[in-house]
């Protein structure tokens, strides 16, 4: 059968040609009967087609085995017959050109008959072949249009082609198809353009999104409310103002936003961190009697929860009820998760039982939030019990619930329990992921089982599971705590080769490890390479290094770093100041230490119990008990309760000056506060009392004996 004959048959099926003479009908009868059709061309047909090709520029395919399939589809619209013949297999047997022609006809048949899903499936098959086997999709559009019999047919198929390209992430081809369709006078449907916009947004093709949207507004198809809603969600990535402009534009075009549009706008405001503005906007919708729903309220509740404003979130939750909207499972789940993350598991449980009471069935997400809260607050027995009851309630544990319970076991030292749940997880056909391995590795490192942790790490790599930055940091920290800093460096280099780039936290672990080994100079050496990799040192890293230099009595280097961090615009924190004050005090530079201590107040850095104790200890060592007592009194006024270290410094300071009345008074206050003196303090105090028995000293001595 020639292409001309096939084309004629195609037109007959679509009602484009009528046959009036019996001879013409008879000549087509064999073509309509697939059982009498022979795929091997007869000599007569070959001669006929050869002549036809010379006059009508047609051609004869070297193998026409696909034409019976086309005939079958034309006669019966049999999808199953087509489904068995994939495009790639057709190309392999009959060549690309012939396969494209045959499939193009079938696609037009299906789309014209209203079987658009089938037509789309075939187009996706063609597009997939071109993407994987050829690398481009040049010519698909032209071939499809060449077999079209009407403007409507071309328009339908071009729309489906846009969707097929977009769904296969061949987005440039999808945009090209849109432009080609417009060029030849076809009008793609707004639904196909909306689908293309969604796909472009998902792949963050910013310029394509803007260009397509503007093209739609300029020359069609005219954007509808769903188009604006899709683009609004995208515009929120680049600021609230652009999204607001879209709402104004919709009103200007007399287009009524739907509840989905308003929900998208409110959710966008919340994600942009402005839950307060979102709440004002929602209340305005209510006042204007415009549509809103649970999604709008849930978005705002979630926005306030993200800001840890749980009281406000609960107020909005109650407001939601008062305006006639019943909270759904998402409303409750958002609040349960937020309270559990703030360690208020009791409130989470209260909301959970309230939800159950009113007939809302909790999801696995709701249960997982409570499970996580119980684990993080150390209520492991309750967590294990809750976990075991979930299956009885008909839930099937997923990766999230297993990750939570395994991590909880590891953090609370129950490594046997963690391993039991890993085995159970595998038994349920769930493959342990990087989070499970990281929890186990962390647990074994904390238990001092670095060797076991490393075996797990190797097993993880052997299974093809790439570690993340947390996994690597845990191992590095484990090495450093064992004094194996060199091995930690080697792991960092290996992970860099694997594509895991060290972050500030990992560098701080290494720096801290070196500083604890009294190798602050070595720690300083990795400061430069860290900066070269584009990492900007933060206050934590500076403070760690400064503390390292101070502990090695390298005050000059410590203050150089202090000057550098100020120059780089990094504000020192309480730890930074306390380290420097400690260094100055140990070197008897009390005036400089006091100036730095007062500078903390001027710079708005809050002084804590440790910083007060450091400066008090310095004055006690230098014998200036008057200043030490003044600072001690100031510390009490600031609301800080002295601890064993503060009392010890003061008592020893008074003992050295033989001011035993003051020392005895402090020990009495200490005992009254429920703080037991250390053995060293008791020894020093008893030694002094033996030389100088004072009023009340014997009673104090007896009380010290009772305290052990």
- Largest β-sheet summary: none
Strands, total number: 0
What is the number of helices?
42
Through-space gap between termini: 109 Å
Helix proportion: over 70%
* Radius of gyration of CA atoms, rounded to a whole number: 39 Å
- Provide the residue-averaged pLDDT: 83
Low-confidence stretches: 1-63
* Content of β-strand: under 5%
Structural class, please? Answer: mainly alpha
Shape, please? Answer: elongated
Keywords:
708 residues, mainly alpha, disordered N terminus
Characterise the protein shown here.
- By secondary structure, the chain is mainly alpha-helical.
- Among the domains are: 1-188, no CATH class; 660-706.
- 73% of the residues lie in helices and 0% in strands.
- It has 42 helices and no strands.
- Helix 10 runs parallel beside helix 12, helix 14 packs antiparallel against helix 15 and helix 22 (364-376) packs parallel to helix 24.
- The protein starts with a helix and ends with a helix.
- The model is unreliable at 1-63 (pLDDT under 50).
Summarize the structure.
With 708 residues, the protein is mainly alpha-helical. The longest helix has 19 residues, at 116-134.
């Amino acid at each position: 059968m020639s292409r001309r004959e096939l084309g004629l048959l195609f037109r007959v099926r679509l009602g484009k040609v009528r046959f009036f003479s019996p001879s013409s009908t008879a000549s087509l009868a064999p073509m309509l009967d697939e059982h009498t059709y022979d795929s091997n061309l007869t000599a007569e047909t070959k001669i006929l087609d050869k002549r036809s090709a010379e006059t009508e520029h047609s051609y004869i395919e070297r193998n026409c085995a696909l034409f019976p399939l086309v005939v079958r589809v034309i006669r019966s619209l049999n999808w199953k017959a087509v489904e068995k013949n994939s495009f790639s297999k057709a190309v392999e047997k009959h060549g690309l050109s012939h396969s494209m022609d045959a499939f193009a006809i079938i696609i037009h048949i299906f789309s014209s008959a209203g079987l658009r899903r089938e037509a789309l499936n075939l187009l996706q098959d063609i597009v997939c072949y071109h993407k994987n086997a050829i690398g481009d999709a040049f010519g698909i559009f032209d071939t499809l249009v060449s077999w079209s019999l009407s403007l409507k047919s071309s328009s339908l198929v071009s729309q489906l082609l846009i969707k097929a390209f977009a769904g296969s992430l061949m987005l440039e081809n999808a945009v090209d198809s849109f432009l080609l369709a417009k060029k030849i006078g076809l009008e793609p449907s707004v639904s196909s353009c909306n689908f293309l916009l969604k796909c472009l947004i998902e792949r963050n093709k910013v310029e394509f999104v803007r260009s397509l949207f503007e093209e739609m507004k300029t020359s069609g198809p005219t954007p509808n409310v769903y188009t604006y809603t899709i683009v609004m969600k995208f515009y929120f990535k680049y600021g609230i103002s652009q999204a607001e402009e879209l709402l104004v534009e919709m009103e200007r075009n007399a287009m009524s936003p739907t509840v989905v549009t308003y929900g998208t706008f409110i959710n966008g405001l919340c994600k942009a961190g402005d839950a307060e503005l979102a709440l004002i906007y929602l209340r305005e919708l209510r006042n204007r009697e415009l549509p809103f729903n649970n999604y709008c309220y849930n978005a705002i509740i979630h926005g306030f929860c993200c800001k840890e404003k749980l009281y406000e979130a609960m107020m909005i939750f109650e407001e939601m009820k008062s305006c006639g909207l019943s909270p759904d499972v998402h409303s409750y789940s958002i609040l349960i998760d937020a309270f559990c993350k703030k360690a208020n598991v009791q409130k989470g449980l209260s909301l959970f039982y309230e939800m159950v009471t009113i007939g809302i069935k909790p999801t696995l997400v709701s249960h997982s939030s409570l499970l996580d809260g119980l684990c993080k607050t150390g209520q492991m027995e309750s967590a294990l019990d809750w976990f075991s009851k979930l299956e009885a309630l008909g839930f099937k544990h997923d990766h999230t619930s297993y990750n939570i319970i395994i991590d909880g076991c590891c953090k609370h030292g129950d490594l046997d329990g963690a391993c039991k749940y890993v085995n159970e997880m595998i038994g349920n056909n769930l493959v342990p992921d990087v989070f499970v391995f990281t929890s186990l590795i962390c647990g074994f490192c904390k238990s001092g089982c670095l060797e076991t942790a490393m075996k797990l790490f190797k097993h993880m790599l052997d299974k093809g599971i790439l570690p993340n930055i947390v996994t690597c940091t845990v191992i590095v920290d484990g090495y450093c705590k064992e004094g194996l800093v060199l091995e930690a460096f080697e792991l960092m280099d290996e992970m860099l080769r694997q594509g895991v780039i060290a972050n500030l936290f990992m560098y701080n672990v290494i720096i801290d490890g070196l500083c604890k080994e009294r190798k602050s100079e070595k720690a300083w050496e990795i400061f430069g390479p860290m900066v070269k990799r584009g990492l900007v040192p933060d206050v934590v890293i500076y403070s760690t290094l400064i503390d390292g230099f101070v502990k090695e009595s390298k005050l000059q280097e410590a203050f150089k770093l202090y000057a550098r961090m100020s120059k780089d615009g990094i504000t020192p924190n309480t730890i930074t100041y306390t380290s420097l004050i400690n260094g100055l005090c140990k070197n008897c530079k009390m005036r400089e230490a006091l100036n730095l201590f007062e500078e903390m107040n001027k710079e708005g850095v809050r002084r804590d119990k440790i910083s007060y104790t450091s400066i008090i200890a310095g004055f006690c060592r230098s014998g200036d008990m008057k200043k030490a007592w003044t600072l001690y009194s100031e510390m009490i006024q600031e609301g800080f309760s002295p601890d064993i270290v503060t009392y010890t410094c003061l008592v020893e300071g008074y003992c050295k000056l033989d001011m035993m009345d003051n020392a005895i008074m402090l020990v009495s206050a200490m005992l009254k506060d429920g703080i037991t003196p250390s053995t060293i303090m008791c020894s020093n105090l008893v030694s002094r009392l033996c030389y100088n028995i004072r009023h009340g000293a014997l009673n104090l001595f007896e009380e010290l004996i009772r305290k052990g």
